[in-house]
Specification:
By secondary structure, this protein is α+β, with helices and mostly antiparallel strands. It has a single domain, classed as Leucyl/phenylalanyl-tRNA-protein transferase, C-terminal domain (Aminopeptidase). 35% of the residues lie in helices and 23% in strands. The chain contains seven helices and seven strands; from the N terminus they run βαβααβββαβαβαα. A seven-stranded mixed sheet has the order 2-3-4-5-6-1-7, sandwiched between helices.
Length: 193
């Protein structure tokens, strides 16, 4: 992370309490389910990674500086960093990006230009992660926004155990076909095992 967009230094964050979103505990509210199933949204994977990254940084306070932007673009070109995009009427309604390693997805940032755009992106991400055999969705910190969707905090030691286990998995973000319907996204993201 960086302190601000203008800060040239970068530092690692390893909090005592780590935010994660358990893939079997993801919650979609009734209003979000209604929005998802309205048929007004389309979902893509890696359609415009750089744009999503820039949209996530386009706020008054951001930790995404030019060095971080360059590094995440390089990770994207190497096949490790990915974005989920949500479209409505050809316009980007929201999105998120993060990094995949083994069976772990490290969510980095999300944004919305329309109501619930980032939440819809999270639904699509969770569906992809579940379909692809992922074991861990790291959110770094727990926000009120993520808590309403099932996010929790765990200790650093518990996180490291979950991470070690997830890194042993050969998960596939591309397992879910692009033409997956919103109904299928909802089913995949909310079913419990």
């Amino acid at each position: 992370m960086a302190e601000t967009a203008k800060d040239t230094s970068v530092f690692w964050v390893d909090p005592e309490k780590r935010g994660i979103l358990p893939l079997d505990g993801f919650h979609v509210s009734k209003s979000l389910r209604k929005r998802l199933l309205s048929g007004k949204y389309d979902f893509t994977l890696n359609a415009c990674f750089e744009f999503v990254l820039d949209a996530c940084a386009n706020r008054d306070e951001t930790w995404i500086n030019p060095s971080i932007r360059t590094q995440y673009n390089e990770l994207h070109h190497l096949g490790f960093a990915h974005s989920i995009e949500v479209w409505r009427d050809g316009n980007l309604a929201g999105g998120l990006y993060g990094v995949c390693i083994g069976g772990a997805f490290f969510g980095e940032s999300m944004f919305s230009t329309m109501t619930d755009g980032s939440k819809l992106a999270l639904v699509a991400l969770v569906a992809r992660l579940r379909a692809g055999g992922f074991k861990l969705l790291d959110t770094q910190f727990l926000t009120d926004h993520l808590a309403t969707m099932g996010g929790i905090e765990i200790t650093r030691d518990e996180f490291k155990r979950k991470l070690a286990s997830a890194l042993e998995v050969n998960a596939d973000l591309w397992e879910l076909p692009e033409e997956t319907t919103p109904y299928e996204l909802w089913q995949l993201s909310t079913q419990t095992s």
